[in-house]
Specification:
With 301 residues, this protein is α+β, with helices and mostly antiparallel strands. The protein has 12 helices and 7 strands. It binds protoporphyrin IX containing FE (HEM). The site of protoporphyrin IX containing FE (HEM) has 20 residues, from strand 3, helix 9 and strand 5.
Length: 301
């Protein structure tokens, strides 16, 4: 479900919150599991607002939200063929840039191509990213996986070798999924760094705290060997998690144990002590949600 618009009902169940916020200290994790490509890439937003927003950003600032370099063209052709096989009406005779934009308007998810660049490395050679979580596609273009992850404190030390090994072992056609949780004070889908937005700090109320769940998908393309990496953003208010006590405890433990530099990177440094206190109060025996939070729903709205 993409909650850019709450009127866009979802055919799929809500997130598995206990998987997203396990009872474990913070660590950068691979967290990969198999995933059916057709299921991940299928449209979810029946209201059409997500595609309308994508079309708007791509019309207003195509060079900000889309990129294509020559090494990505074989991956583009394979991705357009995949999208067509899944029902998207993209004309494969258009020029490559027009096909890239058409793909960006046809899919609800963002996507990039990581193209083999020799010596086991992959480089980001193109894609469409309309709904970034505080990063810019243009800044990452041409970067290796380690370069792309460079701003994340400690991530490369923990995972960069595992990620390249995983890419090397992926078999074409096998889809993989994982999740990243980010946090925000606003529910805008497009959180490009050039768009100012209020920061999380100790004044944040639970109703202003949004979990920005990135559902990520990886697929090796058979001919080019490029890795298609897709991201579907789901914005969920904190209150949606409050009905899952184990996840409330997991989120509190995560926020409490994330190292200071990583908490700063994730934008929660100034808010976390306050949030942990609120979450601990809710999850303690007899604890309940503060008045600013509506009754926890049994499902994600
Ligand atoms: C198996 C593959 C991958 C794993 C395990 C992985 C893991 C992660 C993790 C743990 C984070 C930190 C998230 C957080 O804030 O909590 C992250 C951030 C990020 N990842 Fe990945 N990632 C993978 C592939 C990719 C690919 C292919 C891209 C290509 C664009 C990518 C782009 C990013 C970006 C842009 C960030 C944020 C960096 C920034 O703020 O500048 N990741 N990734």
């Amino acid at each position: 479900m993409i909650t850019g618009d709450e009127s866009g009902p979802s055919a799929t169940p809500g997130p598995d919150w206990e998987r997203v916020f396990p009872d474990a200290d913070h660590a950068w994790r691979m967290g990969l599991r198999r995933c059916d490509p057709a299921e991940f890439l299928a449209p979810r937003d029946r209201s059409g607002t997500v595609l309308a927003e994508r079309a708007r950003w791509l019309a207003e600032a195509p060079v900000t939200y889309a990129a294509l370099t020559p090494p990505a063209e074989p991956a583009l052709a394979e991705t357009v063929a995949l999208a067509r096989a899944l029902g998207a009406g993209i004309d494969p005779t258009l020029d490559p840039w027009a096909q890239t934009l058409a793909l960006g308007r046809a899919w609800e998810c963002d996507f990039v191509w990581m193209t083999p660049a020799g010596e086991g490395a992959h480089r980001l050679t193109g894609g469409v990213v309309c709904f970034p979580s505080s990063w810019a596609l243009r800044d990452k273009l041409g970067g290796t996986m380690a370069g792309v992850h460079g701003p994340v404190p400690g991530l490369n030390a923990a995972l960069s070798r595992q990620i390249e090994t995983f890419f090397a072992r992926m078999r074409p056609g096998e889809g993989w999924a994982r999740e990243n949780a980010n946090y925000s004070r606003v529910s805008d889908l497009n959180q490009h760094p050039a768009r100012p937005r209020p920061q999380l700090d100790a004044s944040v109320t639970p109703d202003e705290f949004w979990i920005r769940l990135e559902h990520q998908f990886l697929l090796k393309l058979p001919a080019s060997g490029a890795v298609l990496f897709a991201i579907r953003v789901e914005q969920v208010p904190l209150r949606a998690v409050l009905g899952v006590p184990a996840a409330v405890r997991g989120l509190a433990r995560l926020l409490e144990t994330v190292p200071e530099d990583a908490a700063d990177y994730k934008g929660v440094l100034a808010a976390r002590a306050h949030l942990v206190a609120v979450l601990r109060a809710i999850s303690s025996p007899g604890g309940s949600a503060p008045r600013t939070i509506r009754t926890p729903p049994t499902e994600v709205p």
